[in-house]
């Protein structure tokens, strides 16, 4: 009888261990998650000022989001267990639309492939009447960085490895966010706003509006100091906004902030990660190398 009891107990213990192991080994859910940036109406919004959010068109296989009034974060988490480097991704579109797949979802998937979390910022567009073009988006970006830090434990974010990456107008927004973190763009609304909105690093890909025609004469909202985050910058010589990249690099150099600038001979503007037959398409490799050298990315991207 005692043998039967002992055998039964062993079976129960073994089964429990197996079930526990199965539970522990269960795959994590890496489905993208959408989070609202503001708990209510975004600051300064006027009901009816813009229409309902919609996709404007899909020319060149680019999804262009228009009339954004409710900013969101779309979280793409890398397949890593430990708190991970995270990048706030700011698509471009002239502050009029957002190139959602070209400079958003495709970038998030690439970041995941190098072991980095991504959070795509759907910021407010188009430009609001009687407000600077970047004012509402800057509010959204500052709030987004604070939310990411406030929810770092739940979302697997390393709070000291939180960066920002932007394309074109999103590059201008990223530079403005990186140089205005000590100037709140909106009044605090909750506990999340006690968090820092300073990015730990910045990546600018064909940034616009930072300088116009003179790299030594930056836009007034771009105020680089020795507290500005280090940056990786990419542009092409035949891009009409090339002065923005050169200008930002020179500002960082003057402030003795670490920076890396890559200016390719051709490639134009608005290519994202897509093949265009030009050497500029190697920029993601250069960027990944820069991030890895700074301890921000890892290969392979799983553990």
Architecture blueprint of SSEs:
Layout: H1 2-25, E1 33-36, E2 54-55, E3 64-66, E4 72-76, E5 84-90, E6 98-99, H2 101-113, E7 117-122, H3 135-150, H4 152-155, E8 157-167, H5 169-179, E9 202-205, E10 231-236, H6 242-254, E11 259-264, H7 283-293
Parallel strand pairs: 5-7, 5-8, 8-9, 9-10, 10-11
Antiparallel strand pairs: 1-4, 2-3, 3-6, 4-7
Supply database-style keywords.
303 residues, alpha/beta, Rossmann fold, 8-stranded mixed beta sheet, 3-stranded antiparallel beta sheet, 7 helices, 11 strands, 18% strand
- Overall mean pLDDT stands at 91
CATH fold-level label? Rossmann fold
Number of domains: 1
CATH class: Alpha Beta
- Strand fraction equals 15-25%
Helix content: 25-40%
Structural class: alpha/beta
> Low-confidence stretches at least 5 residues in length (pLDDT < 50)?
1-26
Largest β-sheet summary = 8 strands, mixed
Counted by DSSP, the helix tally is 7
**Strand order in the largest sheet:** 1-4-7-5-8-9-10-11
Identify the quaternary structure here: single chain
CATH architectural grouping: 3-Layer(aba) Sandwich
**What is the CA-CA span between the terminal residues?**
47 Å
């Amino acid at each position: 009888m005692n043998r039967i009891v002992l055998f039964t107990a062993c079976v129960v213990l073994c089964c429990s261990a197996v079930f526990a192991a199965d539970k522990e080994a269960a795959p994590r859910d890496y489905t993208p998650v959408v989070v609202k940036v503001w708990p209510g109406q975004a600051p300064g919004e006027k009901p009816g000022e813009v229409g309902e959010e919609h996709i404007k068109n899909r020319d060149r296989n680019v999804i262009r989001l228009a009339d954004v009034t409710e900013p969101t974060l779309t979280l793409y988490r890398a397949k890593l267990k430990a708190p991970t480097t995270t990048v706030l991704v700011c698509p471009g579109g002239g502050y009029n639309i957002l190139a959602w797949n070209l400079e958003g979802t495709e970038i998030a998937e690439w970041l995941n492939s190098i072991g980095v979390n991504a959070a795509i910022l759907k910021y407010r567009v188009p430009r609001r009447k009687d407000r600077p073009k970047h004012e509402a988006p800057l509010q959204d970006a500052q709030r987004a960085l604070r939310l990411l830090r406030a929810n770092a434990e739940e979302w697997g974010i390393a709070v000291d490895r939180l960066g920002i990456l932007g394309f074109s107008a999103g590059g201008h927004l990223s530079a403005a966010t990186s140089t205005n973190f000590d100037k709140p763009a909106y009044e605090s609304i909750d506990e999340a706003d006690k968090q820092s909105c300073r990015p730990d690093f910045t990546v600018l890909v064909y940034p616009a509006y930072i300088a116009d025609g003179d790299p030594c004469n930056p836009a007034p909202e771009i105020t680089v100091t020795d507290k500005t985050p280090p940056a990786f910058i990419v542009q092409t010589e035949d891009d009409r906004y090339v002065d923005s990249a050169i200008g930002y690099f020179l500002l960082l150099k003057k402030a003795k902030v670490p920076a890396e600038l890559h200016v390719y001979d051709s490639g134009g503007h608005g290519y994202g990660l897509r093949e265009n037959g030009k050497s500029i398409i190697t920029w993601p490799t250069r960027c990944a190398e820069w991030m890895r050298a700074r301890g921000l990315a890892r290969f392979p991207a799983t553990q």
